[in-house]
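Q: How would the structure tokens look for this protein?
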Amino acid sequence: MKKYISLLLIIMIIMNSKAAYGSTTSDINSMSSEEIQIQKMEEKFHTMSEDELNDYISHVVGKKSKTALKTPKKAVKISPTIEIKYAWLAAAELAKMKGYTCSAELVKCSVYGNNYYENSKNGLFSKKISNNRDFKAFINADIKKNDKKGGIIFKKSNNKDLYYSLHKVSIISKRPPNLQIYTSTITDIFDFDKDKFSSLFTQLVNDWGLLCQNLNVLKPIDVKIIV
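A: Here is the predicted structure in token form.
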């Protein structure tokens, strides 16, 4: 009986540790063949340079490039939709290289159609949000209240990455009586804003004008972050 209880406790600890960090992609056993194919391509992008990523995007959108990838004669045919998804993942990798890690993550999740959930003080978003002026201003307002509900607009001047990835969010902050520390739940719907993101990706993607014409592969996703 003791062995059974110990085993059960170990399983619960493992499950809780997985939920503590950003949850974005599906388990490998539940992924479709297309998702597995896209994930393998994403792994290749991690090893590419900025020039190689831009050349790949140029190749996909039909733009000629001096070093564009050449398709082997006996290459397996890939659907145009999947290729555009590849290009978006390459663009996300470029954003990540330049420090826009949160924006890159949500674009990637949008490609897969996966919601984003984060519950960790050391999470990708949490570290940036907890030190953000806009977030602190909300927390410090009406400091006597134990429960607070409202919205935050992350300003570009305070954090460009949070501006691009979240911008306008809903927030609920709670704390036990007589304690100073709040636990905040931030929610948003990430629906790729072409006008807003153009100011970022025009600096990163050589063929942004052509790539942004293919927004159909990006899906709106729910975002939930506990700080």
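The beta strands are 116-119, 147-153, 168-174, 183-190, 221-226.

The radius of gyration is 20 Å.

Upvote if useful.
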